[in-house]
Write a structure and sequence with these properties.
Elements (H helix, E strand, L loop, with lengths): L3 H124 L14 H11 L1
Length: about 150
């Protein structure tokens, strides 16, 4: 059997051992908590870095899209300007050709009228009377042709 002294010492040793065990558990718990906290902080920092990298990548992608759109818009405007320039040149040439055609037609008409006038004068000199109106050639335009048809038929 144990004596009261050894029983008291035994209880005191157990108390000391229990306090030491509790202190060790507390230190272990704090260490684990600090480790968990450190791991969470590391994960959070890594996540922030990853998000920052993704945000930068997305910003670069958006900028690239904007640049492509701007380039496409510039190319479209340039093509439109070239097309308009071609159209203007085409219209200018067409106007010049129409003016030349009208000028030639007017010259032909003038020559025809002069020739008819001469023929009338020659006929008048030859016969001494007013000749019948000679039939002129039909004009080139449709409107003039219709007018010519009314007069000559």
């Amino acid at each position: 059997m144990k004596s009261f002294g050894s029983f008291s010492e035994d209880i005191a040793d157990r108390r000391l051992a229990l306090k030491q065990k509790q202190a060790d558990q507390l230190a272990s718990f704090k260490e684990k908590g600090a480790g968990v906290q450190q791991a969470a902080g590391d994960r959070l920092a890594a996540l922030k870095d990853k998000n920052a990298a993704e945000a930068e990548k997305a910003a670069d992608a958006r900028q690239a899209i904007k640049d492509k759109r701007r380039a496409a818009e510039d190319a479209r405007k340039e093509a439109e300007a070239k097309k308009q320039e071609k159209e203007d040149l085409k219209n200018e040439l067409k106007a010049e050709m129409d003016a030349d055609r009208k000028e030639k037609h007017a010259e032909i008409k003038d020559k025809q009228q002069e020739r008819q006038k001469k023929e009338k004068e020659q006929e008048k000199e030859r016969t001494g009377e007013e000749p019948k109106k000679p039939k002129a050639l039909p004009p080139a335009s449709v409107r003039e042709y219709v007018e010519w048809m009314r007069v000559n038929i």
